[in-house]
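Notes from hallway chat w/ T.B., transcribed later so I don't forget. T.B. wanted the structure written out for a chain they're using in a teaching module, and asked if we could keep both sequence and structure tokens in one place. Agreed to drop them here.
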Amino acid sequence: MAIPGGNGKTGQAVAAALHERGATAVPLGRGDRVRAAAAGCDAAYLIAPNMHPDEPALIAGLLDELRAAGVGRVVYHSVASPYAPDMPHHLGKARAEDLVRRSGLHWTILQPGAYLQNVDVTGPVRVPYDVDAVFGFADLADVAAAAATVLLEPGHAGATYELASRTATVAELAAEAGVTAERVPGPSGLGEWLDAMFAYYDRHGLPVGTRTLTALLDR
């Protein structure tokens, strides 16, 4: 299984989940030649870098390389609620999803919620959005296990799955860890796209149901 963009934490987790099930994973970095490396692979798992400035163009190029390599199946790592006009990077993933669906390949799309691992509860939690906003949080290991399932098992072609391991607020996660949580006022200083995302979180959170991931993991 080829994993373009596979050198980050998600790609490493997916590769480990595939190895646990006896499959061979081929993580590919930005400098790797996808067409040559993916030749002979049954499927590919596509991961774009966080906040990529033009994810549709990146995914279009990867799809071209995979078709040329003879790869017949692709799983695209998207995001929960990609069709959210207030979050530009989510819309980029929505456009990339459309390219995947029209690629001529057998495809599956995974839409994970915010990673649990992104909330650091080793000390007081300070985030630039409402700590009482509701999220469908996805555990990275669960997402990787679901990715391995859809890559290795039949019946997932043409499916789009939203993934969350649990529903919670940041305040609840902090309380469970015995620490406090508070919203940091003002712009984050991390960039326009991130500030737009945090403003969306303030208003709507990012709720995602848990039943789909539970079913995929057969729990």
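Follow-up for T.B.: The chain has a mean pLDDT of 96. Might be a good example for the class.
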